[in-house]
Amino acid sequence: LKSPGIFLKAAKEIVIQMASKITKTPTQPLVRQEIEFLVVGDGPMRQYMEELGQNILLSFTNTSEIARVVNVSLRFLGWMTRADLGRIFLPTLDVLLNPSVTPETFCIANIEAMAVGIPVVSFGIGGIGEYLNKRVNGTAGFVVGTQGQLSDTDGEQWPRLMARLAVSVLTMDARSRAELRKSSSDHVKQYDVEIS
């Protein structure tokens, strides 16, 4: 996991924003939403990240009014083969959050997700902004902080902005989501990425 602190803060913001949307829809009966955050990867920081996740995300959602409208889980899945990522893990996602703030020429994790039709929310650092913004933002993925906005330099805003874009994907109607999934997978065909 890249930039795990930003990921956990964004996850908390997603829960807050989703709970707010659920409670602001009085015309429909209250349906408790399931929100699951999955983390792939392993390393010396894993135990620390699991504990931090409990403190930042789960303890917050289990002791607040939010628990009335959402059930939140956070699972650390450990290391996966590339074949398992493409065949088992990625197709189960609704959206991929990539909170990396390290400039990369070409982030393969984003491309792999898009290849199986998973919308991506990522920072536009390095080459990532180029391929996600090749067309209008939102047709191939969503980018936080590439338009010279205040958010480019204000790191405190990044988790909230990332969450807002993720929630926009999670709350899309079925037709719009299907169009975004198709657009994402069509967009990466030019890169000759093989997902086993």
Compute the average pLDDT.
80
Topology pattern, helix = H, strand = E: HEHEHEHEHEHH
By DSSP, the count of extended strands is 5
Strand neighbour order, sheet with most strands: 3-4-5
**Helical amount among residues, as a percent range?**
40-55%
Quote the beta fraction.
Answer: 5-15%
The general outline is globular
Secondary-structure content class: alpha/beta
Q: Could you describe the 3D structure shown?
A:
The strands form 2 sheets. A 3-stranded parallel sheet has the order 3-4-5, sandwiched between helices. A two-stranded parallel ribbon has the order 1-2. The longest helix has 20 residues, at 4-23. Helix 1 runs parallel beside helix 2 (46-62) and helix 1 (4-23) crosses helix 6. It has 7 helices and 5 strands, in the order H-E-H-E-H-E-H-E-H-E-H-H. The protein has 196 residues and is of the alpha/beta class.
Concise synopsis of the structure shown:
This protein is α/β, with parallel strands linked by helices.
List the main descriptive attributes of the protein structure presented here.
single chain, 196 residues, alpha/beta, three-stranded parallel β-sheet, two-stranded parallel ribbon, globular
SSE layout and pairing:
Elements: H1 4-23, E1 33-40, H2 46-62, E2 70-78, H3 82-89, E3 96-98, H4 108-115, E4 120-123, H5 128-132, E5 142-144, H6 158-170, H7 174-187
Parallel strand pairs: 1-2, 3-4, 4-5
